[in-house]
Amino acid sequence: MLSKKKIIIPENLIHIAKKTPFIPVGIVCAGQQSTMDSLKKAYEIGLINPIFIGQRSIINEEAKKLDWNIKNFTIIDKSSEKESAIAGALLAAENKIKVLIKGNIHTDTLMKIYLKKEFGLIGSKRLSHVWHMSLNANDKPLFITDGALNVAPRLDIKMHILKNAIEFANKTGIDKPRVAILSGTEDPIESMPSSIEAKEIMNRAIKENINAYVHGPLAFDNAVSSKAAEIKKISGEVAGKADIILVPNLETGNSLSKIMVYFLGACAAGIVIGGKIPVVVTSRADSSESRIASISAAIIAAQ
Q1: Span 121-176, pLDDT tens digits
Q2: Fewer C-beta neighbours within 10 Å, C or N terminus of the chain?
Q3: Which residues contact 14 (CB under 8 A, 6 or more apart)?
Q4: Domain limits for position 125
Q5: Is residue 186 a part of any domain in this protein?
Q6: Can you give the CATH number for the domain in which 121 is found?
């Protein structure tokens, strides 16, 4: 059942990202083979100007294995995860980088440092994670949010997540995205709290005149399949045509994205947005293609 399809980087992400070539990025705990491999490829296609943070000897060793001469790049020699994360946060605070990339470091360690007030990386927005999912090179993307950062967000936090995703979709070329607020039904019912909340989010979005078509609650089939929406007599700008899926909790978004990756061979470009600079927080299990797509997405978010 697992897909054997080759994962393909979406061309639109690369095209938009390359409008600002060789953007300065900081890689926290860079001395990992998969991390260095994706960084080399991202540099070779003109996406990034890397600043490596971590143990110098390990970073140089991994670069040598890849036959990558990095002597002209900056390496900030740090021995621990925390020290490396602090160095990355300082680079962001001092406007020396536009994107922060997670290497061989625990996500919670990196994000705890990022959130510290002393670095000034958080403003009025709430941080959230968004996936840009695609199957083919020129595929229409599906955005899934939040499936990696906010576990069980309150309604007010979901409004931040919604606005972050809309802003990112705008930067990828979608002027007025269609947002489906996901639940297990298309009707708000008391026995399913996520459906009641979805209706409230839709009402708030309309009241705030958010620049997006927002509809909730919608079950997944009604959100992405015009045929399913038609059969159930669900009309509107979003039903069957969603660009963004706003999920009720982290488990839903995480599972949905990984189902697409492992069963459909989708390319998952995932980033944390809402702060001063975007953060790439790929998993060790992610493919090289997904890592490069995530770097591209972060560059776009930084523009």
Answers
A1: 999 899 999 999 999 999 899 999 999 999 999 999 999 999 999 999 999 999 99
A2: N
A3: 45, 47, 296
A4: 11-177+243-302
A5: no
A6: 3.40.718.10
- Does a structural domain hold residue 251? yes
- Residue 60: pLDDT above 80? yes
Residue 40 domain-assigned? Answer: yes
**pLDDT tens profile 209-254:** 999 999 999 999 999 999 999 999 999 999 999 999 999 999 999 9
Would you say residue 238 lies in a domain? no
* Spatial CB neighbours of 189, under 8 Å, sequence gap ≥ 6: 195, 196
Mean pLDDT (whole number) for 272-296: 93
